[in-house]
Amino acid sequence: MAKEKILVTSALPYANGPIHLGHLSGAYLPADIYVRYKRLNGDDVIYICGSDEHGVPITISADKEKVSPQVIIDRYHEANKKAFERFGMSFDNYSRTSIPIHHETAKEFFLEFYNRGLFIEKKSLQFFDDKANMFLPDRYVEGTCPKCGNEEARSDECENCGSLYDPSELKNPKSKISGGTPKLKETSHYYFPLGKYQPALEKYVDEMNEKYGWKENVLQYCRGWFKDGLKDRAITRDLDWGIKVPVDSAAGKVIYVWFEAVLGYISSTKELSQLKNDPDLWKKYWQDSKTKYIAFIGKDNVVFHTIIFPAILMAWNEGGKEQYCLPQNVPANEFLNFEGKKFSKSRNWGIDVDEFLDLFEPDLLRYTLAANLPETRDTDFYWKEFQLRNNSELADILGNFINRTFTFVFKHFDGKVPALGKLEKIDEDMLKEISEYPKRVADLFEKYKIRDGVNEIMNLARDGNKYFNDTEPWKTVKSDIERCGTTLNICLQTIYSLAELFSPILPFSIEKLFVMLNAKPVDWKNCGKPQLKEGHQLNHSEILFPKIEDEKIDAQVNKLPKVEVEKEKVDLITYDDFMKIQLRTAEVIEAEKVPKSEKLLKLKVRLDNEERQVIAGIAKSYGPENLIGKKVVIVANLQPAKLMGLESKGMILAVETKDGGLEVLNVPESVNNGTRVK
How far apart are CA 151 and CA 153, in angstroms? Predict the structure, then answer.
């Protein structure tokens, strides 16, 4: 197969706080595994990232500490860069958006569009704080969402329901600077005509999905935005911190971070060109139609990488200059939670990467996260599960297989690879199994099913252990030394394959394992073939994965903030009160996701002689196709309510499972629709 030219980017983390485990599971570890795999495959890969150092989150952090934004970004850029290095991230360049080359790149794009007359200058209403004497960017205003009622919504966007709205629609606005009530004041900004590119963007998303198979969560986000219609989007902000707008008429304004931050991928690659003293290096990836560009992100960044950044590149390409390539795929992950709850700095809930790596080796974390990546739904990190993964999988399966094989070879064959003697069926089956794994795992990695690929590799270690047990070398070493040697030869070939297959996931441990094997990796597809020759001298082994004792894990669990559980006050109701609640059976006849919502499904249910619409918060546990035809129980006389602008006439009953999912209550098909539950 022809080698590919691949550009890989991971979302630029804000330099306003430390990287935590949730970040790693989203945009970084999956990308690093993919990049390492592609390099072993012999592909031409470049991996780009860096710190996002403008925008309101930076200034908010600076305001809280009463320091300049520069102090904040310098601190966290260096800290996060070192944390990524400790974790084993294989970036070709980790840049920052405060450096001159990024400012130059952002201004180049701005002026290109400005001079072509692409921008639209509009007057709009923006919140103004009289006490602070400043316009308030979106994150400096907090209020009640007009769509879902979330009381921590921003001035123009709600993170809870994903809605965008005009600032004038925000209820009970409060300034996060003074605490007072801001007023709406007219200001002028330049707007990017995002709606102009909607037809091209829809075509682009459809074509990329048809060719390369985009993830369903990404497609749902895109379709939701398209359904609502793309609108002009402000490209400037009234702020002191950021990239100054390079036109005289916009004094005191900066380029909005949503526009310039994504250009950080380009400027980071330009910086790499400078570092390598190869000025045109960046063009070989960004401006080559043969480039395969993959953008790894978390789900909160989907719109910026599937709609906004492609639109910016489309707009540039219209100018007839060098053409930029657009993302071929955007494999966005869901969120990783910590001990059943969202990571929260304010509540001290979670653990930063540096804190973790002060306690445990990075490969233990890489494996645990990789085996449980939130690729299709939110997942959780639990200390006890981390311990179990290490002890039962890394230590008892992989580590045990390596240790027992090396021990036998050094004890009975002087540490040299034994000869491969006459093969029996069990040997042939094992060799065939080894040969199939590189392609099997590659097929999963190529589809960005990193978690499945990782678990598949561990299955080979399981097969190796089973083969060792089934061939009983502890017996054949006494009765048939040649037969024993054949077993150990095949076990060593298996270990070699495991070393290469696991190297993208466990780089530090596998480096040690290759030293033990006294060997080097080969091309990925060939690692399933026997590579260790008869008589090859091995080096002495070491324990790669020591078991983690309960005391060490208990110490971390005990550090967690104690969540005070209030005794639930039970308000007793009368029998008559209960009888007012009409629980009735209903059949789900239609189901679809609610655009821009991660949780909601729009269902049409049939009672006896009636059909009605019900909005249910079960999208993370059920796909729409899995509900059609099910008979469920609904509260039939509930007062209608609106969720994300959709009327819901009823509530479906469900119970929470151990893993935090929801299980809808079902009734037998024999029960008639509309039957009252008593």
Answer: 6
User: 370 lies in a domain?
Assistant: no
Residue 658 lies in a domain: yes
Whether residues 262 and 338 fall in one domain: yes
* Cα torsion angle, 405, 408, 410, 412, sign: negative
* Half-sphere exposure at residue 192, Cβ-oriented, CA atoms within 13 angstroms: 29
Q: How far separated are the first and last CA of the chain, in Å rounded?
A: 65
| Alpha carbon distance 631, 61 (integer Å) | 50
DSSP output for 391-406: IIIIIIIIIHHHHHHH
3-state secondary structure of 540: coil
Q: Which domain, by its residues, includes 148?
A: 118-250
Q: How many domains does the chain have?
A: 4
Convert the pLDDT of each residue in 320-344 to its tens digit: 889 999 999 999 999 999 998 888 8
Is 529 found in the same domain as 396? yes
Burial 14-47 (b: 16+ CB within 10 A, else e): bbbbbbbbbbbbbbbbbbbbbbbbbbbbebebbb
List Cβ neighbours of 143 (8 Å cut-off, separation of 6 or more): 151, 153, 155, 170, 171, 172, 173, 174
Adjacent-strand bridge partners of 175 = 141
Do residues 590 and 553 share a domain?
no
E strands, 550-666, in order: 583-593, 601-606, 611-616, 631-635, 641-643, 646-648, 651-652, 654-656, 662-664
Based on the fold, state whether residues 542 and 440 are members of the same structural domain: yes
Note the pLDDT tens digit of each residue in 361-399. 999 999 999 999 999 889 999 999 999 999 999 999 999
260 & 182 share domain: no
The two structure tokens encoding residue 406: 């090396």
Q: Is residue 483, in this structure, part of any structural domain at all?
A: yes
Please, which residues have CB within 8 angstroms of residue 197's CB and are 6 or more apart in sequence? Answer: 230, 311, 314, 315
- Confidence class for position 570, pLDDT limits 50, 70, 90: low
Whole-model pTM: value is: 0.82
Q: What is the DSSP string of 106-164?
A: HHHHHHHHHHTT--EEEEEEEEEETTTTEE--GGGEEEE-TTT--TTB-SSB-TTT--B
pLDDT for 156: 79
Please give the pLDDT value at position 563. Answer: 56
**Do residue 543 and residue 395 come from a single domain?**
yes
Q: Which amino acid is at 178?
A: S
Calpha distance 332→473 (Å, rounded): 46
CA 608 to chain centroid, in Å, comes to 44
